[in-house]
Amino acid sequence: MIIFADNHPSNNAAWKTKSERWGFTVRELAVPNPHPGADYHVDAVTKAITSRTRLVAITHVTTTNGDLFPAKEICRVARERGVLCHLDGAQSFGLVDVDLGDIKPDFYGGSGHKWPCGPKPPRVAALFQHARGDRSDRGRHQALHGRGLGTAA
Q: Going from the N-terminus, what domains does the chain have, and what CATH number goes with each?
């Protein structure tokens, strides 16, 4: 799977923990400083995807500098290569308009306690969107809430 170094640390730690448990490889892509812009992220994902890549997990808005990731373009690249895409919307859910039908991630997670001003953790909201027609047999749209989304098996 592919992640970016400037994803939220809790996401990257969770993916790395899962990789140790289940034996898959996490490739963490560096982000140069000064920030290179949106095209860098799309190009980096395009170059990093291999025949063994199964998932790209990106943040929608970074916690480090507030950049809006080019989610639609990254999800498109992943889809064209047969790779699933998870979009972390914890920093964007309730702050910016999110059109999942346009972005087309396979999975979308959001936190209800930040911009929507819902209850603080331990309650966390996550929305999972199966937006690809060719994957509709995997499940319906779901809304889940609970604790420890990152590392629960």
A: 2-146 (3.40.640.10)
